[in-house]
Write a structure and sequence with these properties.
562 residues; alpha+beta; Beta-galactosidase, Chain A, domain 5; 2 domains; 11-stranded mixed beta sheet; 8-stranded antiparallel beta sheet
């Protein structure tokens, strides 16, 4: 048991480093396959329409109902001259293609595309850069959406905007299914909300019943996450792919490149399906009282699709009926998502330490409401977490100070029994016992605190609230790395100072490893978000102050503390 404390300290630091790198890697959605679809889009002309594949028979772009004739006559009234209409509230701007009534563009008006630009962040789009759309329609006996074609809706306006004093705005798209059947596809936006309500209103004036199933699907290519910077090897690569609820688990995720080998085919009451990326998501939420089916498909064009299909509904002759669903298009606001559907808030993925991360996020938001600045909120959380572990850290620092105090005696024992490792170990343990020192006392508290650090790491990584959040001076985005690397350098200096307060390892190899740790950590932290580095700097500073006071007190006493 030669110098157990030193070995365990190094093991603790190594474990922390490993866990940190593992968690960083876990952000990677695994989208390492060549972006063939994105390259193909880039080669198309700017006005190319890639919203739908060719309407060849057997296309896997749209769902079909089993044993049903999906053919449909086209009674389209083209209405307004433009093929596209806009509907907008105070937080969301949508563009809808009248061919099918799909959402082909969605901009989040409260979130900028980048810190340098004023343009809104675009989540859904269909252009040379990216193909990512939200589609919906009717299939079954009286299908409107088939492999042979999509309905052409009409609208009385080209733009629908939320006016001052209004709580909601709706856009009605009309389709004359037959002489006696009128279908209205209605999108409704509420003030201040990213949840879009979809209603299919069927007015059946015919002599026969109308039967159809509502489907909704998200379709995306393999282009990169637009919310992630490309800053080299250590750039953050959060997960991007499909997320869904199941009867066994309220939250599941599946990377795009795994859709073919592990396709989703689930049926359950309620449920939801989504495509998630860093900070944002789009999610279809069907009727929560219905028994819905959920599937994933990779089309022959290489597009990734996740969809829901609701049970068939019948509108009797001479009656009116409604088929409804909702789609959320916006930031990962876990409190709003929790209200929409069970498990949807878990798309703010804190990993296996969610039970620690969620209270930390709650605390972070409460402190933000006090300070009005996310940087000061992070500092506040750090101080409170440090206070919670004050006594535990005090024991660790006391143990280290005691070890530093008896270090000359340990060196003497090593020299005396240099040729007899067994006697050396026995003599050291007798010294520990005599001085009432726990050789592992300085390491165990570090290990206990690791889960808290990792949980806070996830909170700072996943919280959209910190995106483009300024702190002070040169730090104008806590979610991005320090542009001048000031915080990482301060962090490295704090690690070096803290290292000097610890007893030096007797083993030369261990000593060299410890000397390199501040440099290694500084290098990694150069690429970390400023918010996380800020937490580490404050944590190290508080540790240095506490450890310095304890060390000086013990040195002044002249005897190891009990």
């Amino acid at each position: 048991m030669i110098d157990i404390q030193r070995y365990l300290l190094i093991a603790a630091i190594a474990a922390l480093s490993f866990m940190l790198l593992v968690e960083w890697k876990n952000f990677d959605g695994g989208n390492t396959a060549p972006l063939a679809a994105a390259a193909a889009l880039a080669e198309q002309p700017a006005n190319a329409d890639v919203s739908l594949p060719t309407n060849d028979a057997g296309s896997d772009d749209l769902p079909t109902a089993d044993n049903v004739d999906n053919s449909v006559e086209d009674f389209a009234d083209k209405g307004v001259d433009s093929r596209y209409i806009h509907i907008r509230n105070d937080v969301l701007d949508l563009k809808i293609d009248l061919q099918g009534g799909d959402i082909v563009y969605a901009a989040t008006l409260e979130h900028r595309d980048s810190i340098e630009e004023e343009e809104a962040f675009v989540l859904l789009e269909n252009n040379q850069r990216r193909s990512y759309v939200a589609q919906s329609g009717l299939i079954g006996k009286n299908a409107t959406d088939t492999a042979q074609g999509r309905p052409m809706f009409s609208a009385n306006l080209e733009s629908f905007s939320l006016e001052e004093g209004q709580d909601s705005v709706s856009a009605n798209l009309r389709y004359q299914y037959s002489d006696d059947i009128l279908i209205t596809k209605r999108y409704t936006l509420q003030r201040g909300d990213y949840l879009v309500k979809l209603d299919y209103l069927v007015e059946n004036r015919s002599s026969e019943a109308f039967s159809a199933s509502l489907f909704g699907q998200l379709k995306r290519d393999n282009s990169v996450d637009p919310g992630v910077s490309d800053d080299g090897l250590f750039a953050m690569k959060p997960f991007m792919g499909v997320a869904y609820s199941s009867s066994e688990d309220p939250y599941n995720k599946l990377a795009f490149h795994k859709l073919k080998e592990k396709p989703l085919n689930e049926q359950m009451e309620g449920g939801w399906v989504a495509i998630i990326q860093h900070y944002f998501l789009s999610a279809w939420v069907p009727d929560q009282s219905a028994n819905n089916s959920f599937k994933t498909v990779v089309t022959r064009q290489g597009l990734n699709i996740v969809r829901f299909t609701s049970p068939s509904q019948t509108v009797a002759a001479g009656e009116q009926g409604t088929l409804s669903a909702a789609i959320y298009i916006g930031p990962k606001d876990q409190y709003r998502l929790e209200e929409i559907s069970p498990g949807l808030e878990l798309t703010v993925d804190y990993g296996w330490l969610w039970w620690i991360a969620q209270p930390l996020f709650w605390l972070l938001t409460k402190l933000y409401s006090v300070f009005g600045n996310w940087g000061w909120a992070i500092i506040g959380v750090t101080v409170l977490v440090k206070a919670a572990f004050f006594q535990l850290n005090a024991k660790a620092f006391t143990s280290m100070a005691n070890m530093r105090k008896v270090q000359p005696k340990l060196m003497e024992l090593r020299e005396r029994y240099a040729d007899d490792r067994q006697k050396q170990s026995q003599a050291m343990m007798e010294l520990y016992k005599k001085e009432k020192i726990n050789p592992v006392g300085g390491c165990l508290p570090m290990l206990v605190q690791m889960p808290v650090f990792i949980a806070l790491y996830w909170v700072l990584m996943e919280s959209v609230e910190l995106r483009h959040a300024p702190f002070m001076l040169w730090i104008n985005d806590l979610s991005a790395m320090d542009p001048y690397f000031v915080l990482p350098l301060i962090m490295g200096a704090s690690m070096f100072i803290q290292q000097k307060l610890n007893p030096p390892p007797a083993d030369p190899m261990q000593a060299k490893i410890m000397q390199w740790m501040p440099i290694v950590f500084t290098f990694f932290f150069l690429f970390f978000p400023a918010g996380l580095v800020l937490y580490w700097v404050v944590n190290n500073t508080l540790s240095i102050i506490q450890q310095y006071i304890i060390t000086k007190r013990i040195e002044k006493a002249g005897l190891p503390s009990r």
